[in-house]
Design goal:
By secondary structure, this protein is an all-alpha fold. The chain contains 3 helices and no strands. It is elongated.
């Protein structure tokens, strides 16, 4: 008789932990690559003393060029945020 093979689905859960425990000196791209949300990145920026490396244009809104505009607007509202339009996908 042939051996019977059973496949069991496996769920993998990633636990990110507290963004405040991340090392000093990370950039927004690093936080996003680690799976942190936009709001967690803002928390990291605040804990780190609001460094310019996380706010490239120094407008007080960190990581706005790394995370989707919708995430940034959901966090801050429209105050101080000028959404950019990606016109590369607009048909003439």
């Amino acid at each position: 008789t042939a051996p019977v093979t059973t496949t069991v689905p496996v769920t993998v859960t990633t636990v990110l932990g507290d963004v405040r425990s991340q090392p000093v000196g990370l950039f927004c791209r690093d936080l996003r690559a680690k799976g942190f949300s936009y709001s967690a990145s803002v928390d990291y920026w605040r804990v780190q003393g609001q460094p310019n490396r996380l706010d490239a244009d120094k407008d007080g809104i960190p990581c706005e060029t790394v995370y989707p505009t919708s995430d940034v607007l959901a966090y801050w509202g429209t105050q101080g945020v000028t959404p950019t339009l990606d016109t590369s996908s607009v048909y003439d």
